[in-house]
Amino acid sequence: MGDILKNINKAEVLTLKNLVAYSDGQVVSKTLVQNTGVGITLFAFAKGEGISTHESQGDALVTALDGVGEITVDG
User: Fold this and answer.
1) How far apart are CA 21 and CA 2, in angstroms?
2) 27, 37 in Cβ contact below 8 A?
3) pLDDT tens string 55-72
4) Element of type H or E holding 29
5) In the chain, is it the N or the C terminus that has fewer CB atoms within a 10 Å radius of its CB?
6) Cα four-point dihedral sign 66, 22, 13, 3
């Protein structure tokens, strides 16, 4: 299956909010894990920014590490 970790070292303690930085007027993302079973991506949204509607083939988990936001699920 090979390595599924991207942009992080195996067995390292991470502070997630330090792995991706805010950038004015942008949405910044960093993929940490990606394979057919799971994907973990961190996002940093500048104030007023967002991502377009999208679908997933599986379940999704959203955790806010900082700030406030609005999430719409299933419409």
Assistant:
1) 28
2) no
3) 877 788 889 999 999 988
4) strand 27-34
5) C
6) positive
